[in-house]
Q: What sequence folds into this?
């Protein structure tokens, strides 16, 4: 069977999920991870919708992606407007992406009650909008919104929408189960009918309101769809979109339908957890395939069996997607992960070196304390190199003090004073900042730039705080994730403490140390 095209909508529809709001920096970092995974198309957002999406399309042109095609998203032209003057369509063209996706109505109730135009006017709107875009953009996709509900309500009209989209030049027509209420047997029948009504390439876009979005996507592929839309971890409106973290391995490992390379598939867990971290959410332990419990074994019978033959209680080899088997009573897994990360960091270490076990034990202990290294790989690399004696101490803290002052009707003032020792010299300085962490960061770099001028290139790009689960109220532990960058690179570091300033200090010092180590 031919390869399936993966189309990711994490940055656009995933960002519409409740409790998720990706910053511009988040979207750029996730784009790079999706590209590493081997996703073919990445829907960056709606350039007409908000400033962040507009800036994203400007910024992403500075990144060299290996495989992914950035795609801008929008709608058909507004009813009654001149196509060539429609702002939405022209914003899509001005995004200067190689591909564009627009959605249009395929359910007659939406045409009559939402757009309030005739059915024929809607058909013309779809065809003319696509034809206008196709004349100026290499690839144009059409999302037939509410197609499955539209087909059930008015079969002939829903199929006419597809035919007019094909006439307008759509390179692929995506059948959307926008309300997420269709069942697999319905999807099979309706996709088959759509395939007979048009010769255009078909895709599938499902929502998870009936908890069968993944199943519907797989059935659609088996019924003829060649593009699959979804999001990492199933992020999306209401109950979410089809989860690419389940779709990809099911297609590739179960159905034998290629979508990414084997090496790319082994990054799936990493990409999932990276997205969780930037979404500022705790990963779902019991998520199929990529959850930490997906290949965890606790019951005595299970443990005994998988030690002899993993296939007895594991439906795939967890290593194929970058996950690991875990024995919860006496955890014996994990060395392979350490060795794999060492390889990524260009660290030469033998699998029998006792330091590997030391690093693993340290990692498990720090994870119990609340550390997580998805999105903070610089901290993990430093931890490994410290265990191997491959780093040096660039500075030592003598002490610091952070002062917050707030007076009525005035903005809060933050000042950090710091004393560090570099070699035999003591440097004592202070700096102001927008908040205590920014002040501390400014003071630290101000103190060290005298000795390490390259730190002038470093800037704090992003800062996230998560309160870790517990029963300590305001005294609960927090995890701080910091993203820093210079002119050529960016890196993430992490800190954990009951004190938010202490946790921030850990992440900041790791960031500075990593920059100095790189040089």
A:
């Amino acid at each position: 069977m031919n390869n399936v095209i993966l189309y990711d909508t994490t940055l656009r529809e995933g960002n519409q999920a409740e409790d998720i709001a990706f910053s511009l920096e988040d979207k750029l970092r996730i784009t790079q991870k999706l590209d590493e995974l081997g996703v073919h198309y990445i829907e960056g957002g709606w350039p007409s919708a908000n400033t962040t999406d507009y800036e994203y399309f400007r910024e992403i042109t500075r990144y060299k992606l290996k495989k992914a095609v950035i795609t801008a998203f929008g709608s058909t032209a507004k009813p009654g407007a001149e196509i060539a003057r429609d702002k939405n369509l022209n914003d899509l063209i001005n995004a200067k992406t190689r591909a564009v996706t627009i959605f249009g109505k395929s359910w007659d109730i939406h045409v009559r009650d939402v757009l309030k135009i005739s059915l024929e006017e809607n058909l013309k709107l779809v065809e003319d909008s696509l034809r206008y875009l196709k004349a100026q953009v290499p690839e144009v996709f059409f999302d037939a919104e509410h197609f499955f509900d539209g087909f059930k309500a008015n079969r002939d009209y829903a199929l006419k929408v597809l035919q007019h989209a094909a006439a307008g030049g759509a390179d692929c027509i995506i059948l959307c189960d926008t309300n997420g209420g269709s069942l697999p047997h319905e999807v099979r029948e309706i996709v088959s009918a759509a395939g007979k009504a048009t010769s255009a390439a078909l895709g599938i876009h499902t929502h998870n309101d009936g908890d069968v979005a993944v199943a519907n996507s797989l059935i659609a592929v088996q019924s003829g769809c060649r593009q699959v839309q979804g999001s990492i971890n199933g992020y999306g409106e209401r109950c979410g979109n089809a989860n690419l973290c389940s779709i990809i391995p099911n297609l590739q490992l179960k159905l034998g339908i290629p979508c990414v390379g084997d090496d790319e598939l082994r990054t799936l867990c990493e990409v999932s957890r990276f997205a969780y971290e930037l979404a500022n959410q705790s990963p779902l332990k019991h998520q199929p395939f990529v959850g930490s419990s997906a290949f965890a074994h606790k019951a005595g019978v299970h443990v005994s069996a998988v030690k002899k033959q993993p296939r007895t209680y594991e439906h795939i080899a967890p290593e194929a997607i970058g996950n690991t088997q875990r024995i919860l009573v006496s955890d014996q897994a994990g060395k392979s992960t350490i060795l794999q990360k060492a390889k990524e960091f260009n660290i030469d270490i033998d699998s029998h070196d006792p330091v590997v076990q030391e690093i693993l034990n340290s990692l498990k202990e720090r994870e119990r304390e609340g550390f997580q290294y998805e999105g903070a790989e610089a901290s993990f690399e430093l931890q490994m190199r410290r265990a191997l004696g491959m780093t040096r101490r660039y500075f030592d803290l003598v002490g610091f003090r952070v002062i917050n002052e707030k007076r009525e009707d005035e903005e809060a003032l933050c000042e950090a004073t710091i004393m560090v020792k570099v070699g035999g010299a003591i440097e004592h300085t202070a700096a102001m900042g927008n908040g205590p962490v920014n002040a501390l960061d400014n003071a630290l770099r101000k103190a060290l730039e005298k000795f390490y001028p390259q730190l002038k290139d470093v800037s704090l790009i992003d800062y996230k705080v998560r309160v870790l689960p517990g029963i300590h109220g305001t005294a609960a532990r927090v995890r701080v994730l910091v993203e820093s960058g210079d002119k050529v690179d960016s890196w993430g570091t992490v800190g954990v403490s009951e004190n938010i300033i202490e946790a921030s200090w850990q992440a900041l010092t790791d960031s500075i140390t990593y920059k100095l180590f790189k040089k």
Notes: The two ends are 48 Å apart (CA to CA).
